[in-house]
Amino acid sequence: MNRKIRFWAAAAASVLLLAGGGVIFRMVQERKATEAADAAQRAKWESAEQAAVSPDTPRRRQVDYAFFATNEYSEQNAFNRQQLFRNKELIYGGKRYLRHTGIRAVLLLGLDRTADDLMEERAPWEQGQTDAIFLLAHNTARNTVKILKIPRDTMAVMPGTNAENQVISEGIAQITLAYTAGNGVDESCRVTCEVVSRLLGGIPIDHYMLGDLNIVAHVNDLVGGVTVRVPEDQTEWTDPAFRPGNTITLHGKDAERFIRARNKEKSFTALERMERQQIYIIAFEKQLKQCLKNDQDIVEKMFDTMEGDMLTDMKRKEYVDLTLSILGSGTLSEKDFVTLPGEPWAGPVYDEYHPHYADIDREILDLFYYESAQ
Question: Which contiguous run of DSSP H or E holds residue 145?
Fold first, then answer.
């Protein structure tokens, strides 16, 4: 009976999230149901481990993680995702890699709602979802950045919670819902960091920064507007100024429309929107650099306008210095962005994005590790 009660509690929580967020949350069985599959997987790994041990490390056994890598997405593979990047040193594909201590991982999140008080705790269906998810790899030695774009519909393992934010199970859902598994404040950001880290093979997230919708128009107008070229996609713009191919300067709410609008009647338009967000980030950084030439306090003023609409675990000096160091480096361009390896998939009700784990491993190695001499 207790098991049945737990099951219906989880189902009820899923329905509430579906009704409030508009995105399906497909809860799976309790992890006990996967114990047999996990045990079989572990047995397979243990039997194969000897063949994967790097022969050039007499000091201690080191497993070549590429031996166990898979590109195929499945719920079982999601649960069994190897957390190789918890290691500062590892073997992959016969090569030794070391974690670059000078590269920080900062998770940038864009919340799809506005709030009078972003610090107010909320019920799961009132918290909003993270429609923009970017992992910033900041090289503190060279003041350069690379940005990993994580599609909002990426299928990932996350805790399932009830109306009281109590964890009642673990399931698979679109990663945009990770923020709802918390209190709507710092706990939600922490959970999102954990979900992203697990998806990416255990890479530690050093810091997070989340902003709500109020930020966009405020910072956009602070720099005098942002000029972009409207790309070709499936968005049905009602304003003729947004005709694909047009170059326009965004002001006020137009900036929010540009980075948020999508055609929900068609599949995979969230991916198109993510490309527009990239276009806007590049254009905004360019405009902010221009402003910095005439106003050395523009970055401080920018964060003043974001007060009350931003959550972060960094101190003000840290994120101001981070921004200034990025602005002091080369100009952002398309080559500084990479999309999380995977493929769009038509889910039973909503769009899904299926991650390719082995390809993700190689991207994380490229972003945060360097190859060491044997």
Answer: strand 144-149
